Amino acid sequence: MKKNILIIPGDGIGQEVTEWGKQVLEVIASKFGHEFAFDNAIMGHTAIEATGNPLPDETLAKAKASDAILFGAIGHAKYDNDPSAKVRPEQGLLKIRKELGLYANLRPILLFDELLDASSLKPEILRGTDILFFRELTGDVYFGEKLRNADNTFASDLMNYHRYEVERIARKAFEAAQTRGKRLCSVDKANVLETSRLWREVVQGLAAEYPDVETEHMFIDNAAMQLVKNPKKFDVVLTANLFGDILTDEASQIAGSMGMLASASIGDGTGFFEPIHGSAHDIAGQDKANPLASILSAALMLDIAFGLQEEAKAVTDAVDQALKAGWRTSDIAVNDTPTDRILGTVAMGQKVI
Amino acid sequence: MKKNILIIPGDGIGQEVTEWGKQVLEVIASKFGHEFAFDNAIMGHTAIEATGNPLPDETLAKAKASDAILFGAIGHAKYDNDPSAKVRPEQGLLKIRKELGLYANLRPILLFDELLDASSLKPEILRGTDILFFRELTGDVYFGEKLRNADNTFASDLMNYHRYEVERIARKAFEAAQTRGKRLCSVDKANVLETSRLWREVVQGLAAEYPDVETEHMFIDNAAMQLVKNPKKFDVVLTANLFGDILTDEASQIAGSMGMLASASIGDGTGFFEPIHGSAHDIAGQDKANPLASILSAALMLDIAFGLQEEAKAVTDAVDQALKAGWRTSDIAVNDTPTDRILGTVAMGQKVI
Ligand SMILES: CC(C)[C@H](C(=O)O)[C@@H](O)C(=O)O
Ligand SMILES: CC(C)[C@H](C(=O)O)[C@@H](O)C(=O)O
């Protein structure tokens, strides 16, 4: 198989971890006889520094022309603490999601047995958890009109959804549920929000077309609670953009660390694969970041973008073996992890390779 | 002290649990020589059934005239599953919050040592946790304009904040932080939302006036994660309405159960005290609900509305003693709780009395 893959390391630890997702793809290509051609592009803070634009035209053109994209992370504290900054790294990420039509963000909560102890949740609460989030990614309050009045005393963001936006992601979630545990939980705040009432109507309407899937509706506040109380009760979770952002970060604690979670953004064209963690500038450049989320993002690319299930499994198995052998990065180490088993980014990447 | 207290049991288990908050107030009155006069009013589904209106004028008039309100819970599945319902129980709650100017919702995450095991989080993660949430309660996407287009293909809700709305709750949070751990964490999504950027600007501006308080800003997705990972790191948490709704429900798992958490809503006039749990119609009328959140809401009333700290402490001590004696309602029981220690609503209420 011949594929063009675009690597966008982005900001902070994105630079370090994406290197390992890429190297894993190279090993897979040579082992399984594929031809993966790689190109590089910039985005986020890195791109602002170089060009003034968080998503340069060249990056967008390369992205559209590629078969799949491996992305690192975005963001920089400099902008976070300056609410009046007009140009921000995150604009690059939001724009590329919109431009590539990446309306469905899949976030599997994959639990490696070896990491049961790394979580703040009790092992008996965690064991057996297997959740697949479908987060809507190109609508909601993220993309609605933003206003600030002239005398700076008022600000607003429009939360909004079109019926077709809810329908297309809901269908993907129902279809996924059919191939898994056959349960779908749609999360909203229909007791308060009109947007959520439209959301619920659409999902209720579609449920009839998927009679083999057990459909449930849950308020976001309750879902945030149930996810900690009893994560096993969830199979496929369907959410709007903002609620999905919150719930999936919360759910990262189920997997022991944010450093373990990969995501796939898909939609109209080229798929986009990235860890759910951020740029973590506090540890950037120090060989401390966990490369496993980037490596698992590469596995998702093989599986979802290229349909290479066997190759994807080879990657997750390699991660599993590294963990079974006792290797840990510091984010997934526990009190009694022997210090000689705690690795930096490079060493952990090499173990998986 | 002479006070007029309005009791609004509301819907579902609200009816059962509020009775015990009230009885505890009666006992306190007779023990400490106060005169508490009680009146009753209806709200929510109960009020819709009786009058067609989730917040009848009579209830609102009584509320405004009272010195404090003890509320139960609101909501009914009937409306949740009918996204097109025009009249809904929750409208009553939102309207009374607005009409009474209850802009600050205080939600203390109080951890009883005896319940460390009832949580899904590991005891060593929990021990020492003491968080006070300040959730803004009369603004945000809850109260912004709601639209549905004529052909039902589009819906929106306006998320919005005025500077003064952020300032008045932020001041309350800073002041509370000064009397506690002197740390304030303000939660927003300033990397995406204009409303959050205004929020952050205001909080940054005020921070200079409270130099003894260490102020931190955190994105909501990160906060939802940190709350599970390391709840001890929080002291006072300041949030907008929607984010606070989500985070405080999530945080209920720290206290072992939603059935343990009380809240105080304060602002321009009469204070409003209520459990953070919902109407739980699935267990309503079965003597299963935990009355402790209502009883602890009564304690918050004594403390915050009437300044009766000693009386408030007598109530929380009584709850503590009931727990120390091993008494549990089913929501806070664990696997090895002896069945003869598991009580219903009435029996648990009596133990505290
Ligand atoms: C960086 C930020 C804009 C982004 C989001 O909120 O979508 C991130 O948190 C994520 O979840 O991918
Ligand atoms: C019932 C609902 C409208 C309410 C809210 O979202 O504010 C509830 O969840 C709460 O937290 O008090």
From TrEMBL, chains A, B:
InterPro entries: IsoCit/isopropylmalate_DH_CS, IsoPropMal-DH-like_dom, Isopropylmalate_DH. Pathway: Amino-acid biosynthesis; L-leucine biosynthesis; L-leucine from 3-methyl-2-oxobutanoate: step 3/4. It comes from the Bacteria. Its EC number is 1.1.1.85. Pfam families: Iso_dh (PF00180). GO terms for molecular function: 3-isopropylmalate dehydrogenase activity. Keywords: Amino-acid biosynthesis, Branched-chain amino acid biosynthesis, Cytoplasm, Leucine biosynthesis, Magnesium, Manganese, Metal-binding, NAD, Oxidoreductase. It is found in: Cytoplasm. PROSITE patterns: IDH_IMDH. Binds 1 Mg(2+) or Mn(2+) ion per subunit. Residues 4-352 form the Isopropylmalate dehydrogenase-like domain. Substrate binds at R97, R107, R135, D221. Its main location: cytoplasm. The record marks Y142, K189 as: Important for catalysis. Catalyzes the oxidation of 3-carboxy-2-hydroxy-4-methylpentanoate (3-isopropylmalate) to 3-carboxy-4-methyl-2-oxopentanoate. The product decarboxylates to 4-methyl-2 oxopentanoate. Homodimer. This is 3-isopropylmalate dehydrogenase. The gene is leuB.
